[in-house]
């Protein structure tokens, strides 16, 4: 469990610093990122390149305004950790501000899988797919 806690702390530190290169370095080569919903970014993205494209696409669409901030303590269960979050973004006159929970699976000393859960998926889908 110490490794999971260590990885979680490294993730939090990189996220707080806005150091997305450090975040990406925490992922395994074949990381699987499960983006919820039914929008242009939804689905399972496998591999560092695919996850980088997903996150880069979200940053491009929002003009770099997408922010994810922890709202509570990391919770650890063996190789899994969860993080309650609040995310905000702006695009084309639209704004989103929403709570969520991110779940991570650690393999060795890196993140192998990520699942995101949003408080209101319908609203999030509408934000990402707004014309």
TrEMBL record:
Name listed for the protein in its UniProt record: Nuclear transport factor 2 family protein
Source organism, top-level taxon: Bacteria
Residues of the SnoaL-like domain: 9-114
């Amino acid at each position: 469990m110490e490794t999971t806690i260590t990885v979680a702390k490294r993730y939090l530190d990189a996220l707080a610093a806005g150091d997305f290169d450090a975040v990406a370095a925490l992922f395994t080569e074949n990381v699987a990122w499960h983006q919820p919903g039914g929008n242009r970014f939804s689905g399972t993205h496998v591999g560092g390149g695919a996850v980088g494209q997903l996150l880069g696409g979200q940053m491009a669409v929002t003009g770099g305004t997408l922010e994810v901030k922890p709202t509570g303590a990391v919770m650890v269960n063996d190789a899994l950790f969860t993080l309650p979050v609040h995310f905000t973004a702006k695009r084309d006159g639209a704004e989103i501000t929403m709570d969520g929970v991110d779940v991570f699976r650690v393999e060795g000393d890196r993140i192998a899988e990520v699942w995101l859960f949003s408080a209101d998926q319908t609203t999030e889908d509408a934000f990402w797919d707004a014309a």
